[in-house]
Amino acid sequence: MKILVVGEFITEIYEAAFLESFKEMGHDVYKFSFSDYFNFKSSFSFNWKNFLSYPAKFLEALKRAQNKYHVGPLVNKINRDFIAYVKKIKPDFVFIEQGMFFSSKTIRTAKSKSPDTKIFGYCQDNPFTKTAPKYLWGKYLESCPAYDHIFSFHVFNLADYKRAYGINSELLRGYYIKTRNFPTDKIDERYKCDVMFIGHFEDDGRDEAFIKLVRGGYSFKLYGTEWHNSKYYDEFKNLMGGDIKPLRGEDYNIALNSCKIALCLFSKKLNGNEYTTRTLEIPATRIFMLSEYTDDAASLFEPDKEAVYFKDNNELISKIDYYLSHDEERKKIALKGYERAIRDGHEIRDRAEQVIRAYERLKEAD
What we know:
- The chain is α/β, with parallel strands linked by helices.
- It has helices spanning 15-24, 54-69, 73-89, 104-113, 134-143, 156-165, 206-215, 233-240, 249-257, 268-271, 278-284, 295-300, 313-324, 327-343, 348-365; strands at 2-7, 28-33, 93-97, 118-123, 149-152, 170-171, 193-198, 220-223, 259-264, 288-292, 308-310.
- It is globular.
């Protein structure tokens, strides 16, 4: 089968993971990358000492604006090149992740140039969120009716697609990647701690909970992005011995394996999330997950048996205290969570196979 995977390809855990899985399954896989068009080299700032570089900096600023607002000649070129590429290779289906650059006209034209090709859309986000600016998801949402099939990362977005466009979308959950998220005895002293959180800052009270851990003398480590926006950032920096940084690749997996309790919080305030990719990545490492409660998360891992949940900051700290003093119970829950993640099929290969099955259903219905 010939498959075209489309997306930003900035990290290895999103569209690139699907591409590799399709390839491992023996399919003929092609790639179309948005990031190839946005090779950023500098930022736009005024400095009379480098006046001669202004034209290049100005062009760079224009490129960044097109990438942000999804309009302009470079975006038009992306659309034209995509149509031409589909016409050239005539894939069985196209899997587009975060198709924020494509207009409805582009999707329909690509299909007309290769009538046997099915085009799938997938958004590992909440494109219906009210907190995001309209330009972020506007093109994607406008083009949804043109796709042959829409996959949704969130359960609650299934109703959104139906209400807005009459589309029967399909749930395609997040996943772990077995080569990146797995148990290991390789412990790094830099990451060793009782409690760890890896994730972004959000003004939802999470920093209030974490500062209690810091001030309470807990063995706690914090990693992620945007933490400079917290009013407690200086204390967090002092705890970590420097700026709070994200963890990726091998470091991410080693860090999780180096803690006793991994916290999992959701972007409820900004994005309405009810689970996140870490909901599946943490159990895949066989580490105990203490997660913010939602009905959706609890449907994935049974409360108090495969994961433990909290509903407020006081409950978070009381459960940390309890499970740090009950090692065997904590390890048993971590093992059960790991077994559930494996048994229920939450690895990237499982998701790739789901996409293939959707394609086969569509072809049978033709």
